[in-house]
Amino acid sequence: MTDATGLEPTEIRGATLLPARREDIELHTADGLTLVGELALPADRDPVATLVTLHPLPTAGGFMDSHIIRKAAARLPALADLAVLRFNTRGTSSPRGTSEGAFGEGVTEEADVAAAMAFVAERGLPNPWIVGWSFGTELALKYGRDHDIRGMVLLSPPLHRATEDEVRAWRDDPRPVIALIPEHDDFLRPAEAAQRFAVAPNIRLIPVAEGKHLWVGEKQTSRVLSEIVAAVNPSALPLPTVWPAA
């Protein structure tokens, strides 16, 4: 059965790329590096909010195309009216290209986060949220407080590089921070996460049954994207499972 546009709805799956305005962009850091990335905007309207995505560990294969981040950019401009900014941190490569510099163990990447937030401000992108995954959560916890964001969503936080003091610093911050903790995470599972995040009890922990660190499979992908939208633009829920949406 076709919809009003004459198109037959198709199921949204792993490789689905929904309509959006997509632009290759560059970010420029305070220490003189050029980082490569992409901005995806809703195809025919202004975004209601912006996701600034921070990818997993580049030395373990993380980059701007890591699947949850790629699927957020592929789907959420159309499904939830969100702008999605994704980029390679310093020294990281993807089909988009290679960002200048070298991996900085989460230290020099402070300038990468600042460059992304400066781009958001320059473009006038609305209501920015940081969405970090794995290593990206470390950057979010360490440096997110310094920027004009509405909140953060943390996916599979390992708490390897973010110190207890850096987590505690969020304790009195009024901006919402939501952390999705996979039941079968390789690094930080729900019981330990409850202990490690206890220094900032305002951070909302969401244990995800059957979840794993890499969120493999459409079921886990849908859960993660739905939790992001629940935080950032809940009026867009539930996310459609077919396109064009009814």
UniProtKB/TrEMBL annotation:
Keyword terms of this UniProt record: Hydrolase
InterPro entries cross-referenced by the UniProt entry: AB_hydrolase_fold
The keyword Hydrolase is assigned to this record: yes
Signal peptide feature range: none
GO molecular function: hydrolase activity
The keyword Hydrolase appears for this protein: yes
PANTHER family: AB HYDROLASE-1 DOMAIN-CONTAINING PROTEIN (PTHR42103:SF2), ALPHA/BETA-HYDROLASES SUPERFAMILY PROTEIN (PTHR42103)
Protein name (database record): Alpha/beta hydrolase
